């Protein structure tokens, strides 16, 4: 079951953005997100806008999807130009899903080629694809690398079979190290995604998963706490009492354990749920694409249900691939709705997002009440005192666990 879309103003069929979207655009980076809404099997915890082959129905073909996505890329360039938004090469490109690597590697390469033709890629641009470890081969990864992909993010989630079973993850855990090795041989950077707090997962299970992931020597690790969303299979199982409810104390213990193991292995946290090896410089292996989100830069989302943001204007595409495809092929905007954020909302979101990252939120960006609150947050062990002296709010480990409470106090 795909998530409900937000309410908003109707998206104009010409896609033109308001003048406010162009203001200051030359000073912001531009990224591209390409949503591939296909999965072989729907995982029990997933509420993303994805579809298995039997759910697609007539009028949609995975074989034709690359052409439709490329058409929206061309559309995006025309709309930005016609809206007076500054021309910029792409800072990053991210293929997400779904399972992008269900498509032939040549299809992803074709969409990337269109992005390069329409926008260009900035020097050193990061190009990432998510991947199920079962859906790649040495050959497909080599094709992606030759096309310009620089990084692959593998959905590992856990190294423990009974945990994967609760999540309805069907990949073979033994394929993860093979996929990582193949990616390395193709010259690609590697990230692995983990999930903690799955019902029935012990602390020992979680430690085994984190240490196993570290043993694969990735450049980057994401570790997310499991969230049970309404409408998912796992939520229904929980309501029926088939699996125990989420234990927030257990999730906190697992977060602290992951942070310790990753730090011991040389990883540094740079966002609440993300750690990277320092490399030649502190930001070498951080996800530049995700940092663009957390810093409220500009991005255009391609595909059904994809969200976009340019200069305080946010919009989202029609969810189902059929109406999305019909709009794109008709030369019309596939947007279902949009909103223009006011100054208060933009400030709220800046505080919420930048407080999550290690670079920190400038205290100068806070209202007087927020700046006053910093001293109390330091006293409570939630904010690093040395960073505050430099003029930034940076969360301590305890602060990361209580991030929502910190944000509320900064906004008071």
Descriptive notes:
The protein is of the alpha/beta class. The protein has two domains: 9-294, TIM Barrel (Alpha-Beta Barrel), CATH 3.20.20; 342-412, no CATH class. The chain has 17 helices and 15 strands. It has a nine-stranded mixed sheet with strand order 8-9-7-6-5-4-3-2-10, with helices on both faces. Helix 3 (62-82) runs parallel beside helix 4 (105-118), helix 4 (105-118) packs parallel to helix 5 (138-147) and helix 8 (203-215) packs parallel to helix 10 (248-264). The chain is globular and about 55 Å long.
Distance between the first and last residues' Cα:
37 Å
Strand content: 15-25%
CATH class category name of the largest domain: Alpha Beta
The tally of structural domains comes to: 2
- What is the β-strand count? 15
Alpha-beta content class: alpha/beta
- CATH architecture of the largest domain, by name, is Alpha-Beta Barrel
Main sheet, how many strands, which sense, barrel?
9 strands, mixed
CATH topology of the largest domain: TIM Barrel
Averaged pLDDT, please? Answer: 93
Radius of gyration: 21 Å
Adjacency order of strands in the biggest sheet: 8-9-7-6-5-4-3-2-10
Query: Percentage of helical residues?
Result: 40-55%
Keywords: 4Fe-4S, Chaperone, Cytoplasm, Heme, Iron, Iron-sulfur, Metal-binding, S-adenosyl-L-methionine
Biased composition (Low complexity): 8-19
Domain Radical SAM core: 24-268
Family: Belongs to the anaerobic coproporphyrinogen-III oxidase family. HemW subfamily.
């Amino acid at each position: 079951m795909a998530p409900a879309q937000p309410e908003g103003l109707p998206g104009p069929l010409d896609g033109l953005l308001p003048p406010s979207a162009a203001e200051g655009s030359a000073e912001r980076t531009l990224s591209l997100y390409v949503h591939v809404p296909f999965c072989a099997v729907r995982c029990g915890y997933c509420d993303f806008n994805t579809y298995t082959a039997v759910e697609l129905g007539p009028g949609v073909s995975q074989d034709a999807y690359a052409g439709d996505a490329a058409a929206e890329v061309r559309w995006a360039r025309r709309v930005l130009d016609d809206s007076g938004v500054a021309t910029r090469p792409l800072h990053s490109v991210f293929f997400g899903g779904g399972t992008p690597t269900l498509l032939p590697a040549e299809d992803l390469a074709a969409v990337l080629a269109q992005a390069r033709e329409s926008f260009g890629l900035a020097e050193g641009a990061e190009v990432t694809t998510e991947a199920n470890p079962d859906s790649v081969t040495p050959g497909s990864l080599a094709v992606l690398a030759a096309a310009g992909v620089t990084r692959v993010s593998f959905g590992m989630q856990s190294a423990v079979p009974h945990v994967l079973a609760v999540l309805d993850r069907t990949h073979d855990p033994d394929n993860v190290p093979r996929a990582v090795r193949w990616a390395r041989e193709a010259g690609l950077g590697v990230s692995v995604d983990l999930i903690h707090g799955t019902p029935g997962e012990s602390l020992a299970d979680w430690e085994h998963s984190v240490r196993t992931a570290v043993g694969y020597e990735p450049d980057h690790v994401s570790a997310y706490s499991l969230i049970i969303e309404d409408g998912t299979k796992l939520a229904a199982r929980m309501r029926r009492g088939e699996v125990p409810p989420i234990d927030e104390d257990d999730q906190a213990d697992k977060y602290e354990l992951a942070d310790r193991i990753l730090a011991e292995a040389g990883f540094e946290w740079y966002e609440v749920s993300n750690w990277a090896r320092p490399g030649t410089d502190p930001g070498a292996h951080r996800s530049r694409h995700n940092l663009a989100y957390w810093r409220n830069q500009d991005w255009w989302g391609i595909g059904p249900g994809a969200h976009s943001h340019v200069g305080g204007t946010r919009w989202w595409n029609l969810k189902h691939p059929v109406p999305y495809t019909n709009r794109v092929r008709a030369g019309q905007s596939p947007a279902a709705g949009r909103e223009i954020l006011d100054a208060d909302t933009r400030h709220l979101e800046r505080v919420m997002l930048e407080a999550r990252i290690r670079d920190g939120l400038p205290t100068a960006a806070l209202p007087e009440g927020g700046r006053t609150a910093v001293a109390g947050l330091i006293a409570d062990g939630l904010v690093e005192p040395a960073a505050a002296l430099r003029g930034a709010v940076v969360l301590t480990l305890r602060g990361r666990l209580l991030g929502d409470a910190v944000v509320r106090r900064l906004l008071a």
